[in-house]
Design goal:
single chain; flat
Length: 522
Protein backbone atom coordinates (compact mmCIF):
# COMPACT_ATOMS: atom_id res chain seq x y z
CA UNK A 1 0.00 0.00 0.00
CA UNK A 2 1.31 3.42 -0.99
CA UNK A 3 -0.23 6.83 -0.16
CA UNK A 4 -0.58 7.92 -3.80
CA UNK A 5 -4.18 8.45 -4.82
CA UNK A 6 -5.74 8.25 -1.35
CA UNK A 7 -9.08 10.03 -0.98
CA UNK A 8 -8.73 10.72 2.75
CA UNK A 9 -6.78 13.43 4.53
CA UNK A 10 -3.44 11.97 5.61
CA UNK A 11 -2.45 13.25 9.06
CA UNK A 12 -1.58 11.69 12.42
CA UNK A 13 -4.74 11.15 14.44
CA UNK A 14 -5.56 10.01 17.94
CA UNK A 15 -6.82 6.46 18.36
CA UNK A 16 -10.44 7.56 18.72
CA UNK A 17 -10.24 9.81 15.64
CA UNK A 18 -8.81 6.88 13.70
CA UNK A 19 -11.71 4.62 14.73
CA UNK A 20 -14.17 7.35 13.74
CA UNK A 21 -12.47 7.53 10.33
CA UNK A 22 -12.90 3.78 9.83
CA UNK A 23 -16.56 3.92 10.86
CA UNK A 24 -17.13 6.80 8.41
CA UNK A 25 -15.56 4.74 5.60
CA UNK A 26 -17.98 1.88 6.35
CA UNK A 27 -20.94 4.27 6.42
CA UNK A 28 -19.99 5.59 2.98
CA UNK A 29 -20.08 2.03 1.54
CA UNK A 30 -22.82 0.68 3.84
CA UNK A 31 -25.25 -0.32 1.09
CA UNK A 32 -22.80 -2.52 -0.81
CA UNK A 33 -21.19 -3.92 2.34
CA UNK A 34 -24.41 -5.05 4.02
CA UNK A 35 -25.86 -6.37 0.76
CA UNK A 36 -22.75 -8.50 0.14
CA UNK A 37 -22.70 -9.57 3.80
CA UNK A 38 -26.27 -10.85 3.63
CA UNK A 39 -25.79 -12.55 0.25
CA UNK A 40 -22.73 -14.46 1.46
CA UNK A 41 -23.48 -15.11 5.13
CA UNK A 42 -27.13 -16.20 4.94
CA UNK A 43 -26.38 -19.42 2.95
CA UNK A 44 -23.59 -20.28 5.41
CA UNK A 45 -25.92 -19.59 8.35
CA UNK A 46 -28.63 -21.83 6.87
CA UNK A 47 -26.12 -24.64 6.25
CA UNK A 48 -24.71 -24.43 9.79
CA UNK A 49 -28.16 -24.44 11.40
CA UNK A 50 -29.33 -27.33 9.22
CA UNK A 51 -26.28 -29.40 10.19
CA UNK A 52 -26.68 -28.50 13.87
CA UNK A 53 -30.41 -29.37 13.73
CA UNK A 54 -29.55 -32.75 12.21
CA UNK A 55 -27.10 -33.37 15.07
CA UNK A 56 -29.68 -32.12 17.62
CA UNK A 57 -27.19 -29.51 18.88
CA UNK A 58 -28.39 -26.09 17.66
CA UNK A 59 -25.78 -24.29 19.75
CA UNK A 60 -23.08 -25.64 17.40
CA UNK A 61 -24.41 -23.36 14.64
CA UNK A 62 -23.96 -20.35 16.93
CA UNK A 63 -20.37 -21.40 17.68
CA UNK A 64 -19.61 -22.06 13.99
CA UNK A 65 -20.88 -18.65 12.85
CA UNK A 66 -18.87 -16.94 15.58
CA UNK A 67 -15.73 -18.87 14.61
CA UNK A 68 -16.16 -17.96 10.92
CA UNK A 69 -16.27 -14.21 11.59
CA UNK A 70 -12.76 -13.57 10.15
CA UNK A 71 -13.93 -15.16 6.89
CA UNK A 72 -16.69 -12.56 6.53
CA UNK A 73 -14.53 -9.70 7.84
CA UNK A 74 -12.91 -9.61 4.40
CA UNK A 75 -16.12 -8.17 2.91
CA UNK A 76 -16.02 -4.72 4.60
CA UNK A 77 -12.21 -4.68 4.56
CA UNK A 78 -12.10 -5.15 0.78
CA UNK A 79 -14.77 -2.52 0.16
CA UNK A 80 -13.25 0.25 2.29
CA UNK A 81 -9.65 -0.50 1.28
CA UNK A 82 -10.63 -0.05 -2.37
CA UNK A 83 -12.68 3.06 -1.61
CA UNK A 84 -9.76 4.72 0.19
CA UNK A 85 -7.85 4.75 -3.12
CA UNK A 86 -10.82 6.06 -5.10
CA UNK A 87 -11.89 2.70 -6.60
CA UNK A 88 -15.45 2.18 -5.39
CA UNK A 89 -16.15 -1.55 -5.87
CA UNK A 90 -19.49 -2.80 -7.13
CA UNK A 91 -21.56 -5.42 -5.35
CA UNK A 92 -20.51 -8.03 -7.91
CA UNK A 93 -16.82 -7.18 -7.36
CA UNK A 94 -17.18 -7.54 -3.58
CA UNK A 95 -18.91 -10.93 -3.93
CA UNK A 96 -16.25 -12.10 -6.40
CA UNK A 97 -13.46 -10.96 -4.07
CA UNK A 98 -14.93 -13.08 -1.26
CA UNK A 99 -14.01 -16.23 -3.20
CA UNK A 100 -10.67 -15.05 -4.64
CA UNK A 101 -9.15 -12.46 -2.29
CA UNK A 102 -6.90 -13.47 0.59
CA UNK A 103 -7.86 -17.13 0.75
CA UNK A 104 -4.48 -18.36 1.98
CA UNK A 105 -3.91 -15.38 4.28
CA UNK A 106 -7.22 -15.85 6.12
CA UNK A 107 -6.61 -19.51 7.02
CA UNK A 108 -4.42 -18.77 10.11
CA UNK A 109 -7.12 -16.44 11.43
CA UNK A 110 -9.54 -19.39 11.40
CA UNK A 111 -7.06 -21.62 13.28
CA UNK A 112 -4.39 -20.58 15.79
CA UNK A 113 -4.91 -16.82 15.49
CA UNK A 114 -8.66 -16.92 15.97
CA UNK A 115 -8.58 -15.58 19.54
CA UNK A 116 -6.08 -12.77 18.83
CA UNK A 117 -7.33 -9.53 20.40
CA UNK A 118 -5.66 -7.34 17.74
CA UNK A 119 -7.32 -9.15 14.82
CA UNK A 120 -8.92 -6.02 13.37
CA UNK A 121 -5.58 -4.18 13.32
CA UNK A 122 -3.54 -7.07 11.87
CA UNK A 123 -5.97 -8.38 9.23
CA UNK A 124 -4.84 -5.66 6.75
CA UNK A 125 -1.23 -6.80 7.22
CA UNK A 126 -2.05 -10.26 5.86
CA UNK A 127 -4.73 -9.30 3.31
CA UNK A 128 -3.32 -6.02 1.93
CA UNK A 129 0.45 -6.18 2.46
CA UNK A 130 0.77 -9.97 1.83
CA UNK A 131 3.84 -10.39 4.06
CA UNK A 132 4.84 -13.58 5.87
CA UNK A 133 7.55 -15.10 8.01
CA UNK A 134 10.07 -12.88 9.76
CA UNK A 135 8.96 -9.84 7.75
CA UNK A 136 5.42 -10.26 9.07
CA UNK A 137 6.70 -10.58 12.63
CA UNK A 138 8.61 -7.31 12.34
CA UNK A 139 5.57 -5.64 10.80
CA UNK A 140 3.27 -6.83 13.57
CA UNK A 141 5.66 -5.66 16.28
CA UNK A 142 5.95 -2.24 14.64
CA UNK A 143 2.17 -1.83 14.35
CA UNK A 144 1.34 -3.05 17.85
CA UNK A 145 3.78 -0.71 19.56
CA UNK A 146 2.68 2.75 20.56
CA UNK A 147 0.01 4.40 22.65
CA UNK A 148 -3.00 2.91 20.82
CA UNK A 149 -2.97 -0.41 22.69
CA UNK A 150 -6.15 0.43 24.64
CA UNK A 151 -8.53 1.06 21.73
CA UNK A 152 -6.86 -1.70 19.71
CA UNK A 153 -7.64 -4.36 22.31
CA UNK A 154 -11.03 -2.90 23.23
CA UNK A 155 -12.46 -3.11 19.71
CA UNK A 156 -13.55 -6.75 19.98
CA UNK A 157 -14.88 -6.24 23.52
CA UNK A 158 -16.94 -3.21 22.51
CA UNK A 159 -18.23 -5.07 19.45
CA UNK A 160 -19.30 -8.02 21.63
CA UNK A 161 -21.06 -5.65 24.03
CA UNK A 162 -23.00 -4.03 21.18
CA UNK A 163 -24.00 -7.46 19.92
CA UNK A 164 -25.24 -8.43 23.39
CA UNK A 165 -27.28 -5.22 23.66
CA UNK A 166 -28.86 -5.80 20.23
CA UNK A 167 -29.68 -9.46 20.99
CA UNK A 168 -31.33 -8.55 24.30
CA UNK A 169 -33.16 -5.73 22.54
CA UNK A 170 -34.51 -8.07 19.85
CA UNK A 171 -35.67 -10.60 22.45
CA UNK A 172 -37.20 -7.89 24.63
CA UNK A 173 -38.92 -6.43 21.59
CA UNK A 174 -41.28 -9.41 21.63
CA UNK A 175 -42.61 -8.19 24.97
CA UNK A 176 -43.70 -4.91 23.36
CA UNK A 177 -46.40 -6.84 21.50
CA UNK A 178 -47.85 -8.31 24.71
CA UNK A 179 -50.74 -6.48 26.42
CA UNK A 180 -49.83 -4.97 29.77
CA UNK A 181 -52.11 -7.18 31.94
CA UNK A 182 -50.52 -10.31 30.45
CA UNK A 183 -46.94 -9.03 30.64
CA UNK A 184 -45.79 -10.89 33.80
CA UNK A 185 -47.05 -14.27 32.58
CA UNK A 186 -45.68 -13.68 29.07
CA UNK A 187 -42.25 -12.71 30.43
CA UNK A 188 -42.06 -15.81 32.58
CA UNK A 189 -43.11 -18.00 29.64
CA UNK A 190 -40.51 -16.34 27.40
CA UNK A 191 -37.77 -16.98 29.95
CA UNK A 192 -38.74 -20.64 30.25
CA UNK A 193 -38.97 -20.99 26.47
CA UNK A 194 -35.58 -19.38 25.73
CA UNK A 195 -33.34 -20.35 28.64
CA UNK A 196 -34.67 -23.16 30.83
CA UNK A 197 -35.68 -25.83 28.32
CA UNK A 198 -35.66 -24.27 24.85
CA UNK A 199 -37.04 -26.27 21.93
CA UNK A 200 -34.97 -26.46 18.73
CA UNK A 201 -37.02 -23.79 16.95
CA UNK A 202 -36.38 -21.34 19.82
CA UNK A 203 -32.65 -21.99 19.62
CA UNK A 204 -32.68 -21.40 15.86
CA UNK A 205 -34.58 -18.16 16.45
CA UNK A 206 -31.97 -17.15 19.02
CA UNK A 207 -29.22 -17.96 16.50
CA UNK A 208 -30.99 -15.70 13.98
CA UNK A 209 -31.04 -12.84 16.50
CA UNK A 210 -27.31 -13.29 17.17
CA UNK A 211 -26.56 -13.35 13.43
CA UNK A 212 -28.57 -10.15 12.86
CA UNK A 213 -26.78 -8.36 15.71
CA UNK A 214 -23.38 -9.54 14.46
CA UNK A 215 -24.19 -8.46 10.90
CA UNK A 216 -25.03 -4.95 12.10
CA UNK A 217 -21.94 -4.44 14.29
CA UNK A 218 -19.11 -6.47 12.72
CA UNK A 219 -18.53 -4.26 9.60
CA UNK A 220 -18.12 -1.18 11.79
CA UNK A 221 -15.66 -3.01 14.07
CA UNK A 222 -13.64 -4.00 10.98
CA UNK A 223 -13.72 -0.40 9.75
CA UNK A 224 -12.51 0.90 13.11
CA UNK A 225 -9.60 -1.54 13.01
CA UNK A 226 -8.72 -0.43 9.47
CA UNK A 227 -8.74 3.19 10.62
CA UNK A 228 -6.26 2.31 13.39
CA UNK A 229 -4.11 0.47 10.81
CA UNK A 230 -4.01 3.51 8.49
CA UNK A 231 -3.17 5.77 11.42
CA UNK A 232 -0.23 3.58 12.47
CA UNK A 233 1.08 3.55 8.89
CA UNK A 234 0.89 7.35 8.80
CA UNK A 235 2.75 7.57 12.13
CA UNK A 236 5.44 5.06 11.16
CA UNK A 237 6.05 5.99 7.52
CA UNK A 238 5.16 9.72 7.52
CA UNK A 239 2.66 9.35 4.69
CA UNK A 240 1.35 12.85 5.37
CA UNK A 241 4.80 14.41 4.80
CA UNK A 242 5.40 12.43 1.60
CA UNK A 243 1.95 13.39 0.30
CA UNK A 244 2.64 17.06 1.11
CA UNK A 245 5.94 16.93 -0.80
CA UNK A 246 4.18 15.46 -3.84
CA UNK A 247 1.49 18.15 -3.75
CA UNK A 248 4.18 20.82 -3.40
CA UNK A 249 6.10 19.50 -6.40
CA UNK A 250 2.93 19.45 -8.51
CA UNK A 251 1.99 22.95 -7.38
CA UNK A 252 5.40 24.39 -8.19
CA UNK A 253 5.28 22.82 -11.66
CA UNK A 254 2.26 24.91 -12.65
CA UNK A 255 2.89 28.01 -10.52
CA UNK A 256 4.38 30.00 -13.41
CA UNK A 257 1.27 29.63 -15.58
CA UNK A 258 -1.03 30.54 -12.69
CA UNK A 259 0.93 33.67 -11.77
CA UNK A 260 0.98 34.86 -15.39
CA UNK A 261 -2.75 34.34 -15.80
CA UNK A 262 -3.48 36.24 -12.56
CA UNK A 263 -1.36 39.21 -13.67
CA UNK A 264 -3.18 39.41 -17.01
CA UNK A 265 -6.61 39.23 -15.34
CA UNK A 266 -5.64 41.84 -12.76
CA UNK A 267 -4.47 44.25 -15.47
CA UNK A 268 -7.67 43.80 -17.50
CA UNK A 269 -9.89 44.24 -14.44
CA UNK A 270 -8.15 47.37 -13.11
CA UNK A 271 -8.07 49.52 -16.30
CA UNK A 272 -11.90 49.94 -16.82
CA UNK A 273 -12.43 50.63 -13.11
CA UNK A 274 -9.92 53.50 -13.09
CA UNK A 275 -11.48 55.10 -16.20
CA UNK A 276 -14.99 54.84 -14.75
CA UNK A 277 -13.88 56.39 -11.43
CA UNK A 278 -12.23 59.34 -13.20
CA UNK A 279 -15.34 60.10 -15.28
CA UNK A 280 -17.59 59.84 -12.20
CA UNK A 281 -15.44 62.28 -10.24
CA UNK A 282 -15.48 64.79 -13.13
CA UNK A 283 -19.29 64.66 -13.46
CA UNK A 284 -19.76 65.06 -9.70
CA UNK A 285 -17.50 68.11 -9.59
CA UNK A 286 -19.33 69.80 -12.46
CA UNK A 287 -22.74 69.17 -10.85
CA UNK A 288 -21.62 70.65 -7.51
CA UNK A 289 -20.22 73.75 -9.23
CA UNK A 290 -23.50 74.37 -11.11
CA UNK A 291 -25.55 74.09 -7.92
CA UNK A 292 -23.33 76.56 -6.07
CA UNK A 293 -23.51 79.04 -8.91
CA UNK A 294 -27.31 78.85 -8.96
CA UNK A 295 -27.53 79.58 -5.24
CA UNK A 296 -25.23 82.60 -5.55
CA UNK A 297 -27.27 84.03 -8.41
CA UNK A 298 -30.52 83.81 -6.49
CA UNK A 299 -29.18 85.64 -3.45
CA UNK A 300 -32.13 84.43 -1.30
CA UNK A 301 -31.93 82.43 1.91
CA UNK A 302 -35.09 80.29 2.60
CA UNK A 303 -36.72 80.80 6.00
CA UNK A 304 -38.73 78.06 7.83
CA UNK A 305 -42.49 78.53 8.30
CA UNK A 306 -43.90 79.30 11.82
CA UNK A 307 -46.26 76.91 13.75
CA UNK A 308 -49.33 79.25 13.62
CA UNK A 309 -48.88 79.54 9.88
CA UNK A 310 -48.79 75.74 9.56
CA UNK A 311 -51.75 74.80 11.86
CA UNK A 312 -53.96 77.90 11.42
CA UNK A 313 -56.95 78.18 13.79
CA UNK A 314 -56.30 74.73 15.31
CA UNK A 315 -53.02 75.89 16.86
CA UNK A 316 -52.98 76.02 20.71
CA UNK A 317 -50.01 77.41 22.58
CA UNK A 318 -51.14 75.73 25.84
CA UNK A 319 -51.32 71.87 25.99
CA UNK A 320 -53.50 71.71 29.11
CA UNK A 321 -56.77 70.81 27.28
CA UNK A 322 -55.09 67.89 25.50
CA UNK A 323 -53.64 66.54 28.77
CA UNK A 324 -57.09 66.82 30.45
CA UNK A 325 -58.84 64.83 27.74
CA UNK A 326 -56.09 62.18 27.74
CA UNK A 327 -56.46 61.71 31.52
CA UNK A 328 -60.21 61.20 31.18
CA UNK A 329 -59.72 58.51 28.56
CA UNK A 330 -57.12 56.61 30.56
CA UNK A 331 -59.16 56.74 33.78
CA UNK A 332 -62.16 55.28 32.03
CA UNK A 333 -60.29 52.25 30.63
CA UNK A 334 -60.52 48.86 32.38
CA UNK A 335 -57.32 46.86 32.30
CA UNK A 336 -57.08 43.09 32.88
CA UNK A 337 -54.11 40.67 32.89
CA UNK A 338 -54.17 37.00 31.96
CA UNK A 339 -51.71 34.38 33.20
CA UNK A 340 -51.52 31.10 31.23
CA UNK A 341 -50.45 27.95 32.99
CA UNK A 342 -50.36 24.40 31.66
CA UNK A 343 -51.79 21.58 33.71
CA UNK A 344 -52.82 18.04 32.87
CA UNK A 345 -56.47 17.48 32.14
CA UNK A 346 -56.44 14.18 34.04
CA UNK A 347 -53.61 14.33 36.57
CA UNK A 348 -52.00 10.97 37.26
CA UNK A 349 -52.49 9.45 40.64
CA UNK A 350 -49.51 7.92 42.42
CA UNK A 351 -49.13 4.22 41.65
CA UNK A 352 -49.25 2.36 44.91
CA UNK A 353 -48.50 -0.98 43.30
CA UNK A 354 -45.02 -2.42 43.56
CA UNK A 355 -42.86 -3.69 40.70
CA UNK A 356 -43.88 -6.99 39.03
CA UNK A 357 -42.57 -10.19 40.55
CA UNK A 358 -40.57 -11.16 37.46
CA UNK A 359 -38.51 -7.96 37.71
CA UNK A 360 -37.45 -8.84 41.25
CA UNK A 361 -35.90 -12.07 40.02
CA UNK A 362 -34.19 -10.25 37.15
CA UNK A 363 -32.79 -7.69 39.57
CA UNK A 364 -31.43 -10.42 41.83
CA UNK A 365 -29.78 -12.09 38.83
CA UNK A 366 -28.15 -8.84 37.69
CA UNK A 367 -26.95 -8.11 41.24
CA UNK A 368 -25.40 -11.58 41.48
CA UNK A 369 -23.71 -11.19 38.09
CA UNK A 370 -22.37 -7.75 39.05
CA UNK A 371 -21.01 -9.17 42.31
CA UNK A 372 -19.15 -11.94 40.49
CA UNK A 373 -17.78 -9.43 37.96
CA UNK A 374 -16.52 -7.22 40.78
CA UNK A 375 -14.74 -10.17 42.36
CA UNK A 376 -13.18 -11.08 39.02
CA UNK A 377 -12.03 -7.50 38.46
CA UNK A 378 -10.56 -7.36 41.96
CA UNK A 379 -8.69 -10.63 41.37
CA UNK A 380 -7.38 -9.36 38.01
CA UNK A 381 -6.24 -6.09 39.59
CA UNK A 382 -4.49 -7.96 42.40
CA UNK A 383 -2.72 -10.25 39.91
CA UNK A 384 -1.67 -7.23 37.86
CA UNK A 385 -0.22 -5.50 40.93
CA UNK A 386 1.64 -8.64 42.03
CA UNK A 387 3.07 -9.10 38.54
CA UNK A 388 4.31 -5.50 38.27
CA UNK A 389 5.20 -4.81 41.90
CA UNK A 390 8.93 -5.15 41.23
CA UNK A 391 8.87 -2.42 38.59
CA UNK A 392 6.67 -0.09 40.65
CA UNK A 393 8.28 -0.52 44.08
CA UNK A 394 11.89 -0.84 42.96
CA UNK A 395 12.52 2.83 43.57
CA UNK A 396 11.80 2.36 47.31
CA UNK A 397 14.76 0.05 47.74
CA UNK A 398 18.36 1.19 47.40
CA UNK A 399 20.21 -0.77 44.74
CA UNK A 400 22.71 -3.24 46.25
CA UNK A 401 26.35 -2.21 45.96
CA UNK A 402 28.11 -3.78 43.04
CA UNK A 403 31.10 -5.89 44.07
CA UNK A 404 32.38 -6.39 40.53
CA UNK A 405 34.67 -3.92 38.86
CA UNK A 406 33.09 -1.94 36.04
CA UNK A 407 33.58 -3.44 32.64
CA UNK A 408 36.28 -1.75 30.56
CA UNK A 409 35.10 0.68 27.94
CA UNK A 410 35.02 -0.67 24.42
CA UNK A 411 36.65 1.97 22.26
CA UNK A 412 36.31 1.62 18.51
CA UNK A 413 37.23 4.07 15.83
CA UNK A 414 34.44 5.36 13.64
CA UNK A 415 34.41 3.98 10.15
CA UNK A 416 35.83 6.42 7.65
CA UNK A 417 33.48 7.49 4.85
CA UNK A 418 33.77 5.52 1.65
CA UNK A 419 36.29 7.27 -0.65
CA UNK A 420 35.10 8.64 -3.94
CA UNK A 421 36.17 6.78 -7.10
CA UNK A 422 38.79 8.35 -9.32
CA UNK A 423 36.63 8.40 -12.45
CA UNK A 424 33.29 9.81 -11.29
CA UNK A 425 31.48 9.72 -14.69
CA UNK A 426 32.44 6.08 -15.27
CA UNK A 427 31.29 5.06 -11.78
CA UNK A 428 27.98 6.91 -12.18
CA UNK A 429 27.34 5.29 -15.58
CA UNK A 430 28.13 1.84 -14.13
CA UNK A 431 25.59 2.27 -11.32
CA UNK A 432 22.99 3.59 -13.79
CA UNK A 433 23.43 0.55 -16.07
CA UNK A 434 23.21 -1.82 -13.06
CA UNK A 435 19.69 -0.55 -12.32
CA UNK A 436 20.69 1.67 -9.38
CA UNK A 437 19.72 5.18 -10.53
CA UNK A 438 19.29 6.54 -6.99
CA UNK A 439 22.77 5.35 -5.99
CA UNK A 440 24.22 6.83 -9.19
CA UNK A 441 22.72 10.27 -8.53
CA UNK A 442 23.74 10.07 -4.86
CA UNK A 443 27.35 9.43 -5.92
CA UNK A 444 27.24 12.34 -8.38
CA UNK A 445 25.80 14.66 -5.71
CA UNK A 446 28.42 13.56 -3.14
CA UNK A 447 31.22 14.13 -5.66
CA UNK A 448 29.78 17.54 -6.48
CA UNK A 449 29.72 18.53 -2.79
CA UNK A 450 33.34 17.40 -2.44
CA UNK A 451 34.31 19.42 -5.52
CA UNK A 452 32.67 22.53 -4.03
CA UNK A 453 34.51 21.97 -0.75
CA UNK A 454 37.83 21.58 -2.60
CA UNK A 455 37.18 24.65 -4.72
CA UNK A 456 36.51 26.82 -1.66
CA UNK A 457 39.37 25.20 0.29
CA UNK A 458 37.01 24.98 3.28
CA UNK A 459 35.12 21.85 4.38
CA UNK A 460 31.36 22.00 4.59
CA UNK A 461 29.75 21.54 8.03
CA UNK A 462 28.69 17.95 8.87
CA UNK A 463 25.13 17.22 7.79
CA UNK A 464 24.91 20.22 5.48
CA UNK A 465 21.65 20.37 3.56
CA UNK A 466 21.25 20.82 -0.17
CA UNK A 467 20.35 24.48 0.35
CA UNK A 468 23.48 25.15 2.38
CA UNK A 469 25.65 23.48 -0.27
CA UNK A 470 24.01 25.59 -3.00
CA UNK A 471 24.66 28.80 -1.09
CA UNK A 472 28.31 27.85 -0.62
CA UNK A 473 28.68 26.99 -4.32
CA UNK A 474 27.70 30.55 -5.30
CA UNK A 475 31.01 31.71 -3.82
CA UNK A 476 32.99 29.69 -6.40
CA UNK A 477 35.04 31.59 -8.93
CA UNK A 478 34.10 29.06 -11.63
CA UNK A 479 30.54 30.16 -12.47
CA UNK A 480 30.14 27.34 -14.96
CA UNK A 481 30.60 24.66 -12.32
CA UNK A 482 28.32 26.57 -9.91
CA UNK A 483 25.52 26.34 -12.50
CA UNK A 484 26.33 22.64 -13.09
CA UNK A 485 26.18 21.93 -9.35
CA UNK A 486 22.76 23.63 -9.13
CA UNK A 487 21.42 21.26 -11.82
CA UNK A 488 22.96 18.25 -10.03
CA UNK A 489 21.22 19.27 -6.79
CA UNK A 490 17.89 19.69 -8.62
CA UNK A 491 18.15 16.19 -10.14
CA UNK A 492 19.09 14.69 -6.78
CA UNK A 493 16.19 16.39 -4.93
CA UNK A 494 13.67 15.28 -7.57
CA UNK A 495 14.94 11.71 -7.23
CA UNK A 496 15.22 11.60 -3.44
CA UNK A 497 12.01 13.37 -2.47
CA UNK A 498 9.64 13.17 -5.45
CA UNK A 499 10.90 9.88 -6.98
CA UNK A 500 11.19 11.52 -10.40
CA UNK A 501 14.28 10.18 -12.15
CA UNK A 502 15.99 12.14 -14.95
CA UNK A 503 16.22 10.48 -18.31
CA UNK A 504 19.50 9.10 -19.61
CA UNK A 505 20.06 12.11 -21.90
CA UNK A 506 19.95 14.52 -18.97
CA UNK A 507 22.38 12.36 -17.01
CA UNK A 508 24.79 12.18 -19.95
CA UNK A 509 24.66 15.96 -20.34
CA UNK A 510 25.59 16.39 -16.68
CA UNK A 511 28.45 13.89 -16.94
CA UNK A 512 29.80 15.44 -20.15
CA UNK A 513 29.85 18.87 -18.57
CA UNK A 514 31.45 17.36 -15.44
CA UNK A 515 34.31 15.95 -17.51
CA UNK A 516 35.13 19.33 -19.05
CA UNK A 517 38.32 20.81 -17.56
CA UNK A 518 37.67 23.62 -15.12
CA UNK A 519 39.82 25.48 -12.65
CA UNK A 520 38.08 25.74 -9.29
CA UNK A 521 39.70 28.40 -7.18
CA UNK A 522 38.68 30.23 -4.08
Amino acid sequence: MQPQGMTITLRPRSAWEATDLGVALVRAQAGRIFAAWCLLSIPVWIACNAAAWALDTPWLALLAMWWLKPLFDRIPLYAISQAVFGHTPSLRAIVRAFFTWGGNAIAPWLLWRRLHFARMLLLPVDLLERVSGAQRGERVRALTRGRDAGPRHQLLIVGAEFELVLVLGLISGVLLLVPTPLLPDATAALFRQMFENPPPWAQVLFNACVWAASSLTEPFVVGAGFGLYLNRRVQLEAWDIEHAFRRLAARLARSAQVVGALLVLLTLATTPSLAHAASACASTASTSADAAAACNDAGDTPTPASLPALFGKDYRADGAPFAHHLKQVLDGMQRSERDWRWQLRDPEKPDLRGPPEWSLGLGDFMALAARYWLWLLAAAALAFIVYHHAAWLGWLRDPPPSADDPAPLDRQALAAPEPLPTDIPAAVRALWRDGQPRAALALLYRAGVQRVSDGLDAPLPPGATEGQCLRRSRKLADRGYAALFARIVACWQATAYARRLPDEAQLEALLDEWAQPAAVTA
